Write the structure tokens for this entry.
Amino acid sequence: MIELYIGLILVIVIIIYAILKYNELKYFQIQVDKKWGRINIILKKRYDLIPQLVEIVKGYAKHEKDTLVDVAKLRSEWQNTDSQKTQTTIASEIETNLAKIAIVVENYPKLKADKSFSKLSKELVITENQLAKHRLNYNESVARYNVRVNMFPRLIFAKLFKFKEKGFFQFEENED
């Protein structure tokens, strides 16, 4: 009879422990998702500025049309996908193209002096700084979550409850 009570207590302890570990993993998963949501808001703001920037640059740099078209196309692709991995890839490509636009601007002093362009450029710089800050914050949350998903004994519960590692938000290294 005492073995039955010990067995019952052991089962209850294991169930409580599993619930605690599940809740802990779920909490960190929600934190990562919440931080990705913040990044998404900043990326949307960034991509809302791009068409205005493209229109201003088009007026000055007609022969740089390919870069401008690429940015506009990538912006549309970003809006039409829900995949975090695809959004990250597109964000990286847009980052590269924005760098190309910055180089183009250097060749057009009148464009640099344009008040609308100057205002948009400042907004874009602020947005990029916010994105960098939130990207760092997001990646730190991903690291904390991934540690929990991969460390014993949480690893057992992570596999049992189908918690998967999250990917970091990194831009491709660009030599330009």
